[in-house]
Amino acid sequence: MGHAVERDRRYCHEDYRRWPEGERWELIDGVAVDIGPAPRVRHQDVVSNFHIQLKTHPEQRCYTGIAPTDVVFDDHNVVQPDVFLVSDRTKVTPDNIRGAPDLIIEVVSPSTEVRDRREKKALYERFGVGAYVVAFPEREYIEYYRLEDGRFVGPAIFNWDEILHLTTPEISLPLWEIFDKPPPDQHDAGSAEAAT
Questions:
Q1: What domains appear along the chain, each with residue ranges and CATH number?
Q2: Which of 37, 104, 118, 158 is deepest in the core (most CB within 10 A)?
Q3: Is 161 helix (H, G, I), strand (E, B) or coil?
Q4: Strand-pair partners of 163
Q5: Paired sense of beta strands 103-107 and 131-136, if any
Q6: pTM of the model
């Protein structure tokens, strides 16, 4: 049975903590947002690939998190980003993350695209998230925003056959590994062979 949400009510973190287990909600400016049913398999593959690449990257020293983990910005803003990095380990508590991650990655589903690109982008910018990546699993590209002087700059657009050079932290991710594609030289060779 779903949680009954009152439209005109502004919720806080304590309300959120008392909601039934098994339901996934976020709070954005006190408004309860139902995350909805489980994402598609393709979405989860891309989330998993980002998480594995970041978690196992030899130059990456941050805490690497994955949904469903609560990121608590303040009493009225609690989200569960798909993947995130936190360099300041004092923000990592046994229950949740307290404060802004250095990097957040949201993998778009058809039902979340507008919220990921509008409300969540504005929220992450306001609370000082260092970098924000929005990934489009069906279209196989990403948008990359960097925080400069309190504002997101971008997006820089990267296709599946390019390398994403993150500055927060400074690491590079070959996007063909994120989107489960052959490396570009193999892809091009396959296309050339098909044409002959």
A1: 39-195 (3.90.1570.10)
A2: 104
A3: coil
A4: 174
A5: parallel
A6: 0.90
